[in-house]
Design brief:
The protein has one domain: 3-Layer(aba) Sandwich (Rossmann fold), CATH 3.40.50. It has five helices and eight strands, in the order H-E-E-H-E-H-E-E-H-E-E-E-H. Helix 3 links the parallel strand 3 and strand 4. Helix 2 crosses helix 3. The longest helix is centred in the middle third of the chain and has 19 residues. The protein is globular and about 45 Å long. Pfam families: Abhydrolase_8. InterPro entries: AB_hydrolase_fold, DUF1023. This is DUF1023 domain-containing protein.
C-alpha cells in the first residue's frame, strides 16, 4: 500500500470489475477528497485475495475556500456512492467479502453524508484527515461503532478547520470554557461536524505520525498505513 498507483484500482462501475476483484475476500474502497493520479493495476492483482478500488465518481471540491467548506458536493454524491457500493456488493462472486470504505479529507464528509442518509453495505469505515463526517457520533453512520476508525495527526491542519454552524460553535465555546477551568476539552467541532477523533465521536483511533501533514498518512513510514491495511485485510 506504500505506492498509491500499485494499491488503488481505477474509477470503475461494479459491472466493470470482472477479473479485477469480484471474487476478492477483502475489498477496500478509497474515496479521496480531490482527484488524483490513479493507474490500472489489474494485471498485477491476479490471484490476490484483497482488492482496492478508488471511487472518484463524484464532483469533489477543487479548492479549500470556498468549495471544500460547502457540503453540497457531499450531498450530491450520495446517490452515486450508494449505488456503487450496492452494486459492488450485488455483483461480488463467492463468499461475502470483508468490505472496508476509506475516506480521506472531504472524502470522509462524502462517506458520512451517504451513510447517514442512505446507509452503505460495508463492514468497516475509516475516516482519515476528516474535516467532519456530517454526523455527531459514529453511531449516526448506521454501523457498529467498533468498526468505525479515525486518524488525524497533530500536524494535520485539517484540525483547525473551524465550525460554522451554530450548534458546533456553541459546543466549541462550551468546550473552551471547560478547558479554561481545567475540566478537559477534547470535544471539538470542525467545519463539517464533530472531529472524528474526539472521544465523544466514538470511533476507534488509529496511530499517526504526530508530525505528519494532511496527506502523509500514506507515507511508507506512517504508522497509519499498516493499521489501515490490517483493517482492510480483516486482521
Amino acid at each position: 500500500m506504500a505506492d498509491p498507483d500499485a494499491s488503488l484500482d481505477f474509477k470503475v462501475k461494479p459491472d466493470e470489475l470482472d477479473g479485477c476483484g469480484q471474487s476478492a475476500q477483502h475489498i477496500g474502497g478509497l474515496i479521496p477528497g480531490e482527484t488524483a493520479k490513479i493507474t490500472d493495476p489489474c494485471s498485477q492483482a491476479a490471484g490476490r485475495t484483497t482488492s482496492s478500488i478508488a471511487w472518484i465518481g463524484y464532483d469533489a471540491p477543487q479548492n479549500i475556500v470556498p468549495e471544500a467548506a460547502d457540503d453540497t458536493y457531499a450531498k450530491n454524491a450520495e446517490d452515486k456512492l450508494h449505488g456503487f457500493e450496492v452494486g459492488l456488493h450485488a455483483t461480488h462472486d463467492g463468499n461475502i467479502a470483508n468490505n472496508t470504505i476509506l475516506g480521506h479529507s472531504y472524502g470522509t464528509t462524502t462517506i458520512g453524508y451517504t451513510m447517514k442518509d442512505k446507509g452503505l453495505p460495508v463492514d468497516n469505515v475509516v475516516l482519515v484527515g476528516s474535516p467532519g463526517a456530517g454526523v455527531d457520533t459514529a453511531r449516526d453512520l448506521h454501523i457498529d461503532p467498533s468498526h468505525v476508525y479515525a486518524a488525524q495527526s497533530q500536524g494535520d491542519p485539517i484540525g483547525l478547520a473551524p465550525a460554522v454552524d451554530p450548534g458546533g460553535l456553541a459546543d466549541n465555546a462550551w468546550d473552551n470554557m471547560k478547558s479554561g477551568f481545567g475540566f478537559g476539552g477534547d470535544d471539538h467541532h470542525l467545519i463539517h461536524g464533530r472531529q472524528t477523533t474526539a472521544p465523544e465521536f466514538g470511533a476507534q483511533i488509529l496511530p499517526t505520525d504526530p508530525n505528519g501533514g494532511h496527506s502523509d498518512y500514506w507515507n511508507a513510514n506512517s504508522p497509519t498505513l499498516p493499521a489501515m491495511g490490517r483493517i482492510i485485510a480483516g486482521k
